[in-house]
Specification:
- The chain crosses the membrane at residues 16-37, 58-76, 88-106, 339-356, 376-394.
- Keywords: Membrane, Transmembrane, Transmembrane helix.
- The protein has 456 residues and is mainly alpha-helical.
- The chain folds into three domains: 4-124 and 328-447, no CATH class; 125-197 and 314-323, no CATH class; 200-304, no CATH class.
- Helices cover 75% and strands 0% of the residues.
- It has 15 helices and no strands.
- It has helices spanning 18-43, 49-81, 86-117, 121-139, 151-155, 157-170, 176-195, 200-231, 236-250, 262-265, 269-279, 293-316, 330-368, 373-393, 402-447.
- Helix 2 packs parallel to helix 13 (330-368).
- The relative contact order is 0.14.
């Protein structure tokens, strides 16, 4: 079998492998940039659990591809230098990919789990609080003091980047739970309404009224059944036939007397059970299928929202020790901690992958054009250094805001040198999105990449 692109048995130049690496590296870079844009949309906005899971999955896959391509470079270069046949090169590439892809995928997952394992109960509780704060900021339910987070800012690339990392930065604030708990509780009711369907009118029209229309259709069938039963001899067989027809109609047991008006029909146990099942209404909340919008809001929705608010507030008031592994709320705490860590790590790995492969793409392009390796490295490094420096000096409304400066100062004070380095990296990533996101999103939308998420 001849594989011309990686068959180096008759290679006449030590650069023969460079075009192959250029194609691989540039292809990866395009896919990575598109992923970076979608990652920012997901982590810096209100996303479904499906979208979060999908973006995490693709992020780990892309990390595996990056590691594989990094190892393929030396493999192809050595194969080129030792004049290896294509079949052996292909076998080596396949074997290395089979080993490296799972290693990177599960290694990245294990890293997040390791960090979560070593987190304290207080950190997990703070993570839960900060998740509420972040979501409310994104939704516009609350405003962060001294930072302009209007609709434009929240949806801008730097704003999305900041909001995706804000919970992690907030973890460095001392007594953060005391600072944010009151604000979180104040907006909890609005947040719960948003999460459970939106405005009261929308929930009524697209939830209750939709089920009510189906029940109205059932009532029309019921009137025919009722009329037929009333005209029959009403023997045991006729009654059994009537009850069976009702069961097929409502899918719930229970006799509905014949010849009822809709007002009474709507309050029959089988109809109420059908309504509860469709709208997930608890048994202890009185409901029927003939309620006005005001009645439904006051008697049903307000009660359900209040219960959910109280449940969530109880979560926020749990003692830190209850979030530790093996304790009552360990699962909630671990999920909150992972939700804080995973987006930040994903953004770091994505930014690192993009920068490294920009460097490599430029290197292989110039190397393929017959330039010597040392000058190529100097030129490419110089170009990237200038770009990184320009971005570092390009502060924006987000990174110059009092809130960001306060969080950055807290990170530096609590983390020392490592905190200062992390803060600098975060600042650079936020400012870089002004330049990278438009290009990345153009690539993603042009090529139609969704990375398993719901297209926005």
């Amino acid at each position: 079998m001849k594989i011309p692109f990686i068959n180096f048995s008759n290679a006449t130049s030590p650069r023969a492998y460079a075009p192959v690496m250029l194609v691989l590296t540039a292809g990866y870079l395009i896919f990575e940039l598109g992923f970076n844009a979608r990652l920012l949309d997901i982590t810096g906005g209100i996303a479904t659990r499906h979208d979060i899971t999908a973006i995490e999955h693709y992020g780990r896959l892309i990390s595996g591809v990056a590691l594989t391509i990094a190892i393929w470079g030396p493999i192809l270069r050595l194969s080129n230098e030792t004049y290896q046949r294509g079949r052996w090169v292909l076998l080596l590439l396949i074997c290395s990919a089979m080993a490296l892809m799972p290693a990177a995928y599960y290694g990245e997952k294990a890293l997040v789990e390791k960090i979560v394992d070593h987190s304290t109960g207080e950190q997990r509780r703070n993570a839960l609080l900060l998740q509420y704060v972040n979501r409310d900021l994104i939704s516009g339910l609350i405003k962060a003091e001294a930072i302009r987070l209007d609709d434009h800012a929240r949806h801008s690339p730097p704003g999305k980047a900041f909001l995706s990392i804000l919970p992690l930065m907030g973890m460095s604030v001392q007594h953060v739970d005391q600072k944010v708990l009151d604000d979180v509780k104040q907006v909890m009711a609005r947040s719960v309404r948003h999460d459970t369907g939106g405005s009261d009118g929308y929930v009524y029209n697209h939830g209750y009224a939709t089920v009510q229309q189906e029940i109205q259709k059932e009532y029309n069938v019921y009137t025919d059944l009722s009329y037929a039963y009333a005209r029959s001899s009403q023997t045991g067989l006729a009654r059994l036939t009537y009850e069976s027809a009702l069961m097929r109609l409502t899918h719930h047991p229970g006799l509905i007397p014949p010849q009822l008006d809709f007002h009474t029909f709507a309050r029959q146990p089988p109809i109420v059970a059908q309504l509860r099942e469709a709208l997930h209404i608890p048994d202890d909340i009185a409901v029927n299928a003939d309620m006005t919008p005001d009645e439904y809001t006051t008697r049903v929705r307000d009660v359900m929202v209040e219960r959910e608010v109280n449940r969530k507030i109880r979560e926020l008031d749990y003692a830190p020790d209850t979030f530790l592994d093996g304790a009552a709320h360990a699962h909630i705490g671990r999920e909150a901690m992972e939700a804080v860590i995973a987006p930040a790590l994903a953004l770091v790995f994505s930014a690192m992958g993009a920068l490294v492969h920009m460097y490599k793409s430029m290197f292989y392009l110039l190397y393929t054009a017959r330039m010597q390796p040392k000058p190529v490295h100097i030129i490419v490094a110089g170009v990237l250094f200038v770009c990184v420096t320009i971005i570092w000096l390009s502060s924006n409304d987000v990174t110059s805001s009092a809130l960001f400066q306060y969080l950055a100062r807290q990170m530096r004070e609590s983390g020392g040198i490592s905190g200062g380095l992390a803060c600098g990296a975060i600042r650079w990533m936020i400012q870089a999105q002004t330049y990278f996101y438009p290009v990345s999103e153009m690539i993603r939308s042009t090529l139609g990449f969704t990375y398993g998420t719901t297209d926005m």
